[in-house]
Design brief:
- The structure is a single chain.
- 70% of the residues lie in helices and 0% in strands.
- It has 94 residues and is an all-alpha fold.
- The protein has one domain.
- Helix 2 packs antiparallel against helix 3 and helix 3 runs antiparallel to helix 4.
- The termini are far apart.
Length: 94
C-alpha cells in the first residue's frame, strides 16, 4: 500500500512538502502496521480490527456504490481479519 503514496513525491513542490505529503498518504499504512502488531499478540481483537479496517475502507472508497476496483485493495483486510479470528478459535487450546 505504500507504493500508492509515491505519487505524492512527484511534481514541483519543495522537498519538505513532498515529505509531508508522503507521510500524510501513508497514515493508513501506519494504522495497518499498528493493527498488525496488535494482531500478533491478541489474534481475536486484531482480527476484529482488520475487519473494521475493511469496513472503513469500503466506506472511504465508496466501494458499495459503483467502485468495485477498490475492493481489490481492501479485500485482503477482510480475509486477514477472518484468518486471525479462525486461528484464534482453532488454536486457542494449544
Amino acid at each position: 500500500m505504500m507504493m500508492f503514496s509515491l505519487d505524492s513525491i512527484g511534481g514541483n513542490g519543495s522537498p519538505g512538502k513532498k515529505i509531508i505529503g508522503l507521510l500524510i498518504h501513508n497514515i493508513p499504512v501506519f494504522i495497518l502496521i499498528i493493527i498488525l502488531a496488535i494482531s500478533w499478540k491478541h489474534e481475536f481483537v486484531g482480527g476484529i480490527f482488520f475487519i473494521l479496517a475493511f469496513i472503513a475502507g469500503c466506506i472511504f472508497f465508496d466501494s458499495f456504490s459503483g467502485n468495485p476496483g477498490s475492493l481489490v485493495v481492501i479485500a485482503p483486510f477482510f480475509v486477514t481479519g477472518i484468518l486471525f479470528i479462525l486461528h484464534h478459535i482453532l488454536y486457542r487450546n494449544t
